[in-house]
Specification:
- The complex is a heterodimer of chains A (155) and B (239).
- Chain A has one domain.
- Chain A starts with a helix and ends with a helix.
- In chain A, the strands form two sheets. Chain A has a five-stranded antiparallel β-sheet, sandwiched between helices. A two-stranded antiparallel ribbon of chain A has the order 6-7.
- Helix content of chain A is 32%, strand content 30%.
- In chain A, strand 4 and strand 5 form a beta hairpin.
- The radius of gyration of chain A is 15 Å and the shape is globular.
- Chain B has 239 residues and is of the alpha+beta class.
- Chain B folds into two domains: 95 residues, no CATH class; 132 residues, no CATH class.
- In chain B, 37% of the residues lie in helices and 29% in strands.
- In chain B, the strands form three sheets. In chain B, strands 12-11-10-9-13 form a five-stranded antiparallel β-sheet, with no helix packed on it. In chain B, strands 1-2-3-4 form a four-stranded antiparallel β-sheet, with helices on one face. A four-stranded antiparallel β-sheet of chain B has the order 5-6-7-8, with no helix packed on it.
- In chain B, helix 1 runs antiparallel to helix 5 and helix 1 crosses helix 6.
- Chain B is rod-shaped and about 105 Å long.
- The mean pLDDT of chain B is 87.
- Classes of the chains: A alpha+beta (155), B alpha+beta (239).
- At the A-B interface, loops of A face strand 8 of B.
Chain lengths: 155, 239
């Protein structure tokens, strides 16, 4: 799936400009806790309109990056799209039977740790890809909270 | 017997001298700070399979940018690696950023040397990129003989005419900086202590060197025994 296709799925018929989320020190610390790795970038691109934001991230499953698009609406996941899956095994995570589990999932904080508020069933043989997707969706929900579009929803 | 004693002596003379000198140096490792001196000689490093990397460097707005293997340098500091060879660096004046253009990726870096963003395939960056510079004074890149203007805010790559393309040329960074990059890249891989120790043990020439040093040690022991025996033998008739 191309960036343009993802944009059209997230915001059908709308032409939106890129938005930027600047990653400050505190935000970076939380992002690194969610991702369990260093996050050197100073900013993250996304699209936003109303209470909805759309994010694209790349995260390594086992050896190669998986490109994932996540649409967040009013603090809950609206859709998860696997834009590109490069690993040789574990490709089942691409299919709706798996990605639909993320619908309406929200962010919760337990013992100062950000996580999804719903259990996501794993797939045998795709443990690392599933883990990567859970991290990316948590990150999208967390980043959404720090955008002006999240504040619009709560008003 | 004397003949063999002399032959063994001549055969191992060089190795005994090497063993003695390196042994003395190793006994004084701390006072000579041998562990703190890193080998920079490319011939010695090649014995360990370490090659000095080719350096690509560019200069813009009084800053130096370099690439050694996949490692990127901004003045004296390091940046995360780039996907492909560094082909140019352009200043994005409006954003106060530098775009480090590699073959398959672009790194946006602040004037303080912080990585702002990575722009790759995800954002439909035209790749492979073969050059970067200015097209009619606007930042642009070249991919597969086509020229594209860089609009970093919109992440759009608008094709443009090649007529007014001025490529950014590589520039040789100051020697001091080159040395600093090389030292950082090679790191503290081989210390002088390690090198001397490997000469002492013969490991510098691999398992063959170790065998030679073993043989030298055995022959040295034989020399001691044969020397004492010959001396005792020379004393006997006088008695």
């Amino acid at each position: 799936m191309s960036v343009e296709e993802f944009h059209q799925k997230a915001f059908p018929g709308q032409e939106l400009k890129w938005q930027t989320l600047w990653v400050g020190k505190e935000l970076r610390a939380e992002i690194e806790k969610i991702m369990h790795r260093k996050f050197p970038n100073l900013r993250i691109r996304y699209w936003g309109e109303g209470a909805k934001t759309a994010w694209m991230f790349e995260e390594i499953g086992k050896e190669l990056p998986i490109t994932v698009g996540v649409v967040v609406n009013a603090g809950a996941i609206e859709q998860v799209q696997i834009m590109e899956y490069r690993e040789s095994r574990g490709g089942e995570v691409r299919y709706p039977f798996f990605t639909s589990q993320f619908s309406d999932v929200r962010l919760e904080q337990k013992k100062s740790k950000w996580q999804l508020d719903k259990h996501i069933d794993g797939i045998t043989g795709a443990t690392l890809s599933v883990r990567a997707l859970k991290k990316v969706t948590t990150l999208a929900l967390y980043c959404h909270q720090h955008t002006e579009f999240a504040q619009l929803a709560s008003e | 017997m004397w003949q063999w004693h002399r032959r063994f002596g001549v055969a191992i003379a060089v190795f005994v001298v090497l063993l003695s000198i390196t042994g003395i140096l190793l006994n004084h490792t701390d006072s000579l700070d041998l562990d703190g001196i890193n080998i920079q000689n490319s011939a010695i490093l090649s014995l360990y399979g370490i090659e000095k990397p080719v350096i690509t460097s560019f200069s813009t707005s009084n800053h130096w940018f370099g690439q050694l293997d996949q490692q990127i340098y901004f003045n004296e500091s390091t940046l995360p690696g780039c996907n492909g060879a560094l082909v140019g660096v352009v200043t994005l004046t409006a954003e106060n950023l530098f775009a480090l253009v590699c073959q398959n990726e672009m790194l946006l870096v602040s004037s303080e040397g912080e990585l702002v963003e990575r722009i790759g395939d995800l954002y439909q960056l035209p790749t492979p990129i073969s050059g970067a510079g200015a097209c009619d004074k606007l930042p642009c890149l070249v991919s597969e003989n086509s020229h594209f203007l860089i609009d970093i805010n919109e992440l759009s790559w608008q094709q443009t005419k090649p007529d007014l393309y001025e490529p950014i040329q590589q520039a040789s960074a100051p020697n001091e900086l080159l040395t600093s990059w090389q030292q950082n890249y090679i790191g503290q891989a081989i210390s002088l202590e390690r090198f001397i120790l490997d000469i002492h043990s013969g490991r510098i020439l691999g398992s063959f060197g170790v065998l030679i040093m073993d043989l030298s040690a055995i022959l040295l022991s034989v020399l001691v025994i044969s020397g004492v025996w010959l001396w005792l033998k020379s004393l006997s008739p006088r008695r």
